[in-house]
Amino acid sequence: MASKTAGNEQIILNTYANLRSEINQIYSKITELEMEVSEHSLVIGAIQPLDPSRRCYRMVGGVLVERTVKEVLPAVQRNKEGLEEVISRLNEALENKKKEIQEFELKYNIKIKKADNETKDDSNQKEGSAQGVLVGPAS
User: At what angle do helices 2-47 and 69-108 cross, to 10 degrees?
Assistant: First the structure.
């Protein structure tokens, strides 16, 4: 009987760990795409004031191609809008996954122990009694 309960607990813990892993993956993908949106914004800001007939280079599938600002600017703007749309969908998926994990925590009465005890202990220490490593410039 005890081994069956332990097996069920392990299944629950594995499922919970998978949910947490999925949330972390969504967070990292959102961050990655936000960086790309930022790069697109920088490119748009740099080429928008330029003459539309000016030569412009763009990387397409690993190949650098020569175009004009007039041809490249709309494509970069479309790509940026598409990335923003994907980010909004990922944010929705993230919210759904957060709700799912909250329901899972409630269903199986899962409580997470946080390392708040360490931070509370550190804040109660006197300034002179702090223990740690002080790193200075190499001499």
Answer: 160
